[in-house]
């Protein structure tokens, strides 16, 4: 401990000691002084005002706040199409059968303990997660050039990856699509990166602005980081075709742009885990480096277990080892080490061929139900003669439809029909059911014919 220059240490001179004693005398407090200064201190009890009194009420989160408002609504016909959370035809949250089986296995195993995991999480989970996203025959895995760390779902994986890049990558700018998931800019800014956007969605076609995307990435400074949605783009439901992905890959590699994939919906776009991972695997196949954040929230329905992984594909095994050592320095002061339960569920399912196959069937059933909701909603609007071209409802991919409804129209639907959705007009198709489609179609019909 550093000592005050006037404190009486054995090495100080007699004059220093005298000055020290004088200082202590002049600043001496009585017990009564100490008690009264405790009460005068702003953090103590008593009559003083709160040190937080100046705080303004923060707004609710644009996505999770929709659920807060929904929960407060007493209406029996209310419908939550805000957050991207899968619901059954009965409108109930779903725990997958394979997840129940895996949990039962875990509970029955009396040898299981609750010790801390390593900083990088559950080793088997990490290996299996890399295989799931990169492919079992991935050259990068074979050559040991991938490091995977368990993180707190997709969000945590993005945050850890972002902070790692901010500390160790030469370019600090990340380009995110316009629009994108609303949490992206916040995550990356707080991780220490500077956030810019690239054109992605064209409202006039309700499709991809591919030319704008190529122009913006082409104009990005050499080496910039680029956030790419692996599949089922949120909120637009618009994905590049494989041919377009190939062009994006070529352009990015020619400019040394660093791909950072966000894979929050693997299996939810096409119903196939491998098909949905193709864009990532194209980038791995060229031997270049990249990051990928994986989430098991949606595809295994493990939302609240917070289970995900960050993989960094490197050019060589020794680099991957050093990258991992640095990831540990990012994670340790953030949350020390990740939780054990969710990762164990995933590991049980991924390691067992039968459970894995069962999972793919359940996943496909969820994806198919969402696709059937698209068809039903489209048909319902057509049968009502609702003005406008609604084909984007069946063309868009994944959990969401980006309806094109504006904030005023959304507000009307919430007020008059108790339908809750984000103000950008995004609806979670996974929250719909055959029973609720007519109600939603009535609301959309009313709002577009009413000229809100
Ligand atoms: N990336 C994208 C593109 C997402 O849409 C989401 C979740 C995540 C990452 C993070 O998910 P995780 O941390 O739970 O794994 N988006 C949701 C939920 C489904 C949310 O906003 O938190 C959404 O409604 O947009």
TrEMBL record:
It comes from the Eukaryota. It comes from Eruca vesicaria subsp. sativa. Belongs to the class-I pyridoxal-phosphate-dependent aminotransferase family. Residues 77-444 form the Aminotransferase class I/classII large domain. It catalyses: L-aspartate + 2-oxoglutarate = oxaloacetate + L-glutamate. In eukaryotes there are cytoplasmic, mitochondrial and chloroplastic isozymes. NCBIfam families: PRK09257.1 (NF006719). Homodimer. This is Aspartate aminotransferase. Its cofactor is pyridoxal 5'-phosphate. InterPro entries: Aminotransferase_I/II_large, Asp_trans, NHTrfase_class1_PyrdxlP-BS, PyrdxlP-dep_Trfase, PyrdxlP-dep_Trfase_major, PyrdxlP-dep_Trfase_small. The keyword Transferase applies. GO terms for molecular function: L-aspartate:2-oxoglutarate aminotransferase activity. Pfam families: Aminotran_1_2 (PF00155). GO terms for cellular component: cytoplasm. Keywords: Aminotransferase, Pyridoxal phosphate, Transferase. Its EC number is 2.6.1.1.
């Amino acid at each position: 401990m550093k000592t005050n220059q006037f404190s009486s240490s054995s090495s100080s001179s007699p004059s220093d000691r005298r000055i020290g004693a004088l200082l202590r005398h002049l600043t001496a407090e009585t017990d009564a002084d100490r008690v009264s200064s405790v009460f005068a201190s702003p953090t103590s009890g008593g009559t003083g005002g709160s040190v937080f009194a100046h705080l303004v009420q923060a707004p609710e989160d644009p996505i999770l706040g929709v659920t807060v408002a929904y929960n407060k609504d007493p209406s029996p016909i209310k419908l939550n199409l805000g957050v991207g959370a899968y619901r059954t035809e009965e409108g109930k949250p779903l725990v997958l059968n394979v997840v129940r089986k895996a949990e039962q296995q875990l509970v029955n195993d009396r040898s299981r303990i609750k010790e801390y995991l390593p900083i990088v999480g559950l080793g088997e989970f990490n290996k299996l997660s890399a295989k799931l996203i990169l492919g079992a025959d991935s050259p990068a895995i074979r050559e040991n050039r991938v490091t995977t760390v368990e993180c707190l779902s997709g969000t945590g994986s993005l945050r850890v990856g972002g902070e790692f890049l901010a500390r160790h990558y030469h370019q600090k700018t990340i380009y995110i699509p316009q629009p994108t998931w609303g949490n992206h800019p916040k995550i990356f800014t707080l991780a220490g990166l500077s956030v810019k956007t690239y054109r992605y969605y064209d409202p006039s076609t309700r499709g991809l602005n591919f030319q704008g995307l190529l122009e913006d990435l082409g104009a990005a400074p050499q080496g910039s980081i680029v956030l790419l949605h692996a599949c089922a783009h949120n909120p637009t439901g618009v994905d590049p075709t494989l041919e377009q992905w190939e062009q994006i890959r070529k352009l990015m590699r020619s400019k040394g742009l660093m791909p950072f994939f966000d894979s929050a919906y693997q299996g939810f776009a096409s119903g196939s885990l491998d098909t949905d991972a193709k864009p990532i695997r194209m980038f791995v196949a060229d031997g270049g480096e990249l990051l990928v954040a994986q989430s098991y929230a949606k595809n295994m329905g493990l939302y609240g277990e917070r289970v995900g992984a960050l993989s960094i594909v490197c050019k060589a095994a020794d680099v991957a080892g050093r990258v991992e050592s640095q990831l540990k320095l990012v994670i340790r002061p953030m949350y020390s080490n990740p939780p054990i339960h969710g990762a164990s569920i995933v590991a049980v399912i991924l390691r067992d061929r039968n459970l894995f196959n069962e999972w793919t069937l359940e996943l496909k059933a969820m994806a198919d139900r969402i696709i059937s909701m698209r068809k039903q909603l489209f048909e319902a609007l057509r049968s009502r003669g609702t003005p406008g071209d609604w084909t984007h409802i069946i063309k868009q991919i994944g959990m969401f439809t980006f309806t094109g409804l504006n904030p005023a129209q959304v507000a009307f639907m919430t007020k008059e029909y108790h339908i809750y959705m984000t103000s950008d007009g995004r609806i979670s198709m996974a929250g719909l059911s055959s029973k609720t489609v007519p109600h939603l179609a009535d609301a959309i019909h009313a709002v577009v014919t009413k000229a809100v």
